[in-house]
TrEMBL record:
Organism of derivation: Seriola lalandi dorsalis
Keyword Transmembrane helix: yes
Membrane association type: Multi-pass membrane protein
UniProt cross-references to InterPro entries, sorted A to Z: EmrE-like, Sugar_P_trans_dom, TPT_transporter
Family of this protein: Belongs to the TPT transporter family. SLC35E subfamily.
Short name of any one Pfam family annotated for the protein: TPT
Keywords, ordered alphabetically: Membrane, Transmembrane, Transmembrane helix
Protein known as: Solute carrier family 35 member E3
Main location: membrane
Listed GO CC annotations: membrane
Domain Sugar phosphate transporter: 23-294
Length: 313
């Protein structure tokens, strides 16, 4: 009875974490796109605001005894902090330079890249059926990008870099939490200010500090309030990403992320009037078919694994 109650409690927390991530992740895409389209706020500066608000949110949480900080050696999380900068900055640049449809489909490539990284460097194995589901995902992304009327080289480069760095970051998050024996909040508490420091050194090189388009420029109150709200939502996104990966896996997080796929695409077409050709629609359906196939085979394998364990004497 106690085991069932514990299992129910754990499952309920996981569902709650997934729900928070679902709502905040969809919301942050539309808010950031709105900021880029209507206010022209600089990308890296917006990323820096997200990091600072995330750290302040965690600072308040630890003061309220939500979690206890654990001392971590900086040298062991430097690469994680740098990948965090690249993960957020490149995905934001991809969103800024691509339509929401292309931005969202490019993110679907994170799953194949994660599997490639885990197979090559962590010696994990995946069944042939799982590997074959990556074919329609990849073909669908290529098909959509090829027929996207807003397709551009700069957007493609940012999307590709975003996929690569995001994949590394998500794999490293799970690995570091187990290696350092810390929970999601403890790791993010030290990583967020370190990432902020890195960006603080880079921002003046690439973006103006004053005048039009600068962080200290003549921004309207609605623009500043929207940027601040974006930072609060980013805090929820970052926290839920860490929590989900730490309590499940990088691949599980990514496959759940694809459930946000359709909602975000529909929102892009409705709110920002992104064009959609027949060939792009076929690409989307192709990617979605691969995602659903992957999810089906993964669940079947998990059930078979549980059955084998239950049959052992």
């Amino acid at each position: 009875m106690a085991d069932k109650l514990f299992s129910f409690s754990v499952n309920r927390r996981i569902v709650a974490g997934l729900l928070v991530n679902l709502l905040s992740s969809i919301c942050i895409v539309f808010i950031n796109k709105w900021i880029y389209v209507h206010y022209g706020f600089p990308n890296m500066t917006l990323t820096l605001v997200h990091f600072v608000v995330t750290w302040l949110g965690l600072y308040i949480c630890q003061k309220m005894d939500v979690f206890s900080p654990k001392s971590l050696p900086v040298r062991r999380i430097v690469w994680l902090a740098l990948s965090f900068c690249g993960f957020v900055a490149f995905t934001n640049l991809s969103l800024q330079n691509n339509s929401i449809g292309t931005y969202q489909l490019a993110k679907a490539m994170t799953t194949p890249v994660i599997i490639l990284i885990q197979t090559t460097y962590y010696k994990k194995t995946f069944s042939t059926k799982i590997k074959l589901t990556l074919v329609p995902i990849t073909l669908g992304v290529i098909l959509n990008s090829y027929y996207d009327v807003r397709f551009n080289l700069q957007g493609t480069v940012f999307a590709s870099l975003g996929v690569l760095v995001t994949s590394l970051y998500q794999v490293w998050v799970g690995a570091k939490q187990h290696e350092l024996q810390v929970n999601s909040m403890q790791l993010l508490y030290y990583q967020a200010p370190l990432s902020s420091g890195f960006l603080l050194c880079i921002v003046p090189v690439f973006e103006p500090l004053t005048g039009d388009g600068g962080i200290f420029g003549p921004w309207s109150l609605p623009a500043l309030m929207t940027v601040l709200f974006s930072g609060l939502v980013a805090f929820l996104v970052n926290l839920s990403i860490y929590w989900i990966i730490g309590n499940t896996s990088a691949v599980t997080y990514n496959m759940f992320g694809h459930f946000k796929f359709c909602i975000t695409l529909i929102g892009g077409y409705l709110l920002f009037h992104d064009p959609l050709s027949l060939n792009q629609a076929l690409g989307i359906l192709c990617t979605l078919a691969g995602i659903l196939s992957y999810t089906h085979f993964k669940l079947v394998e998990q059930e078979e694994g549980k059955s084998r364990l239950a049959q052992r004497p």
